[in-house]
């Protein structure tokens, strides 16, 4: 237990300190509950509405996971194409970078116009948030290929397919998982913004409705659950990274 305490103990202690400061500040500074509610009341709201929050959480999580999976699929395919075909790299890489100059929030209503208020409009917004870190992570990962090993494999008569499978893909995995962890965290925010624009379920819809009704405890409860979902998505991506490339965590 000692290694686990050394790794997670400081973060847990810091979170407890922040929680104590939040609770004490709202009491001693007499902050109105509709501006910043007491943490204890937020936790009570989470408990009292746990079944409702659970149902909305599952809907938001479904959107985030589906959008993230599609981003990984399309992003890895595009990165592999650009790595294998230099013309595609010269043509598409600049477009991938330029796509991030357009505010993603501004494109969200376009997704609703195209896909309606069903789940696919939310999934499309998640893809807008997560596609870039996954793709760029994979592209940069391919650049980490050791040139000496590459030349050695060519000298030994390895085909392009063998070089790609046995050298370039393993070399790209650390950078790819870095992008995946970022994208996993962003996926919850993308799903939430998609729900703000129009949905009948999900934590984004729940927090928007609570805000319009000035139910501060319910609003902060929804935000707290969203934060926990984002952390859970990051930890899931990190767990997958440890299983796929365990040697990276033995250093």
Structure overview:
Helix 2 (39-48) crosses helix 10 (216-244), helix 5 (104-115) packs across helix 6 (119-143) and helix 6 packs antiparallel against helix 8. The longest helix is centred in the C-terminal third of the chain and has 38 residues, at 160-197. The protein starts with a helix and ends in a 7-residue tail after the last helix. By secondary structure, the protein is mainly alpha-helical. It has helices spanning 2-28, 39-48, 50-84, 86-98, 104-115, 119-143, 147-155, 160-197, 203-212, 216-244.
Summed up:
By secondary structure, this protein is mostly helical. Helices cover 83% and strands 0% of the residues.
Name of the CATH class: Mainly Alpha
- Contiguous low-pLDDT stretches (5 residues minimum) are none
Task: Write the CATH architecture name.
Answer: Orthogonal Bundle
Helix content: over 70%
What's the arrangement of secondary structure elements?
Elements: H1 2-28, H2 39-48, H3 50-84, H4 86-98, H5 104-115, H6 119-143, H7 147-155, H8 160-197, H9 203-212, H10 216-244
């Amino acid at each position: 237990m000692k290694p686990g305490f050394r790794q997670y103990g400081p973060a847990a202690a810091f979170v407890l300190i922040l929680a104590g400061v939040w609770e004490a500040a709202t009491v001693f500074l007499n902050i109105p509950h509709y501006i910043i509610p007491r943490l204890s009341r937020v936790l009570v709201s989470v408990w009292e509405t746990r079944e409702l929050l659970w149902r909305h959480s599952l809907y938001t999580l479904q959107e985030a996971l589906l959008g993230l999976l599609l981003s990984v699929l399309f992003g890895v395919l595009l990165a592999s194409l650009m790595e294998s075909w230099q013309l595609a790299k010269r043509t598409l890489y600049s477009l991938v970078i330029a796509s991030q100059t357009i505010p993603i929030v501004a494109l969200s209503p376009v997704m609703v116009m195209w896909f309606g208020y069903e789940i696919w409009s939310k999934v499309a917004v998640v893809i807008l948030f997560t596609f870039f870190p996954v793709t760029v992570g994979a592209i940069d990962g391919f650049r980490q290929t050791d040139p000496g090993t590459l030349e050695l494999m060519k000298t030994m008569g390895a085909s392009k397919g063998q070089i790609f499978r046995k050298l370039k893909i393993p070399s790209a995995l650390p950078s790819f998982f870095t992008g995946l962890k970022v994208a996993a965290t962003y996926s919850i925010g993308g799903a939430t913004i998609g729900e703000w624009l129009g949905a009948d379920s999900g934590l984004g819809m729940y927090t928007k409705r609570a805000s319009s009704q000035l139910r501060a405890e319910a609003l902060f409860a929804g935000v707290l659950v969203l934060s926990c979902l984002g952390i859970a998505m990051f930890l899931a991506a990190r767990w997958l990274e440890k299983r796929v490339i365990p040697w990276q965590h033995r250093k």
